[in-house]
Design a protein that fits this description.
The chain is of the alpha+beta class. The protein has four helices and five strands; from the N terminus they run ββαββαβαα. The strands form two sheets. It has a three-stranded mixed sheet. A hairpin with a 4-residue loop joins strand 1 and strand 2. The longest helix is centred in the first third of the chain and has 12 residues. It is globular and about 35 Å long. The N terminus is likely disordered.
């Protein structure tokens, strides 16, 4: 269900002294944290979160694609996403979002780079 909601939780570390391979837990960026939260709380086929604040986690752009948005108006879609982020919104200064159905995503996915640049 969340095939686009995956991220690496650990990386392999090669210790040159002992030549042993181990796992080291990675810190998630604010955008990765937000994306993970949305993946857990929204029944979405695709989630993208981009930190547009230079890394401090105060301004984000998200794309949430869900078949649960079929027949739901734009404001209600955004309210659903905002409700899922109720706690996080206390720390976020600005959140810009696109909430699309899978069909809308298919028609618009080629414009994502342009949307991110705006």
């Amino acid at each position: 269900r969340h095939s686009f909601c995956k991220h690496a939780l650990s990386v392999l570390v090669l210790t040159m002294d002992s030549m042993e391979v181990g796992a080291q837990e990675c810190e998630l960026t604010p955008a990765q944290q937000l994306q993970e939260i949305l993946c857990e709380r929204v029944p979405a086929e695709y989630v993208l979160a981009v930190d547009q604040s230079g890394g401090c986690g105060a301004k984000f752009f998200v794309i949430v694609v869900s078949s649960a948005f079929d027949g739901v108006g734009l404001l209600d879609r955004q309210k659903r996403v905002n409700e899922c982020l109720k706690e996080e919104m206390q720390r976020i200064h600005a959140l810009r979002m696109k909430t699309w159905t899978p069909a809308q995503f298919e028609a618009r996915k080629h414009t994502i780079e342009d949307i991110l640049a705006s």
